[in-house]
Amino acid sequence: METHAPKSAVNILLSNILVRLLSFCVLVLLARFAYFVAVKGQSCDSLNFCFFHQTVESATAVADAAANSDRRRAYYSSVFQDLIAEGVLSTNSKSLCIETLSGEEVVALREIGVVNSVGISSKKLSLEGIRFAKEFNQPFKNLTFDFEFSSTTGMDRTLKPVQFALEVSRTLKPGGFFVLHTESVTDKYSFHSLLQLFDYFTLINLREIDGLDSLAISEIIFRKENETVNHAARGTPTKGKTANKCFVPRYKRQLIRNLEPLIKEEPLKPWITLKRNIKNVEYLSSMVDISFKNRYIYIDVGARSYGSSIGSWFKHQYPKQKKIFQIYAVEADSTFHDEYKMKKGVKLLPYAAWIRNETLFFEINREPSRKNEERGRAMGRVHAVQSSSNFMGDLIEGFDFAVWLKSTVVERDYVVVKMDVEGTEFHLIPRLIETGAICLIDEMFLECHYNRWQRCCPGKRSPKYQNTYAQCLELFSSLRKSGVLVHQWW
């Protein structure tokens, strides 16, 4: 037993040293923490080895989230109480909140006595009464609700506004109210685009109110009717037509007046003047909000190569407001067809835009004596098939562009057309007006071809076209007077 005594003494000594060392470390850490609490106001950073850093941050985040939730709930409670006072909402209303991101709208409704309230959200929320669903695909039966509400996280952000509106119309009872909060109604164009979506609704009120962040938003109140509302009769424009004549509302005429002025005097160097003029263009999508549209479509008539205008201009310069456009390239020249096979998002129509469906001549040379002069300048001119030997070229198929347009797009689409058809515009434009298809076009970029001064030969006009600059100017002026937002293209 005596031989083990020295080891026991050593163990006791080591234990005492470890205890004192640990105690010292604890005192140092406590002192350091006390220093941060007392001197630095309870803040710490990653270099200070503050063990309470994550705990403090988490607690702060929770407190901030709770405060924001309370603020949103109080805001919506105030909004809904005002609607109750106006008779739009009642405690007996079966209510739906569309695309609620955190559920405060539903909570607010229930707190003020509208207990039969539910919501849908594209986020999975673990809250009572909130179902996981898309705003354009409500998981409810027809004619379910008396009241539906969409905050600025709903209609403003949806990728399918038409389907959104159709679902509201489907699930809301006749006589029921739909209340929309939006930041996108910033002009009369966007406002009337919104009204077009709600054919079965009457506009009850439009007013500006404070949003959640005290910034002004629009509150729009609709009431659902039993039958389609004739918005045109109420002064609400559509792109539709009466006897193939476009209805042109006052706000659209004002937009046309705001366009860049037409070049009145014939330019001596049109290839320079018209190209520079593109910098002066007042794009429609720079003047108005285009959010409330069904689809966004760009049609390049006489597209030639992809880089000619689709890649060089439309893709990079046209203001799209972050919308994704469907692109159609109408090009009869087979030289360019293979290129489009490699271009995603572009649908090629390998035909010539024309006034009816028929076989055409694709002109190579206008007269045999001008073979060398004209070969490099013929840019896809088309002519009806005839026996004249003055035309040499390939046979191609033409299609009725106006009929195709009416079968492809609808009034609720946002449609941009660029037309460069080597003189055929003097056939196509009248056809578009005659059929009413022109009413479907929101914005047009038109190159008008005339007997311009030749670059090669000062004082000489091109024999390629018979129309004059005055006739082109009249074409543009008549289109604008008819309600078409048209620009001079180069």
From TrEMBL:
Residues 257-357, 393-490 form the DUF7870 domain. Keywords: Membrane, Transmembrane, Transmembrane helix. This is DUF7870 domain-containing protein. PANTHER family: METHYLTRANSFERASE, METHYLTRANSFERASE FKBM DOMAIN-CONTAINING PROTEIN. Gene3D superfamilies: Vaccinia Virus protein VP39. Pfam families: DUF7870 (PF25276). The lineage of its organism: Eukaryota, Viridiplantae, Streptophyta, Embryophyta, Tracheophyta. InterPro entries: DUF7870 (IPR057192), SAM-dependent_MTases_sf (IPR029063). The chain crosses the membrane at residues 12-38.
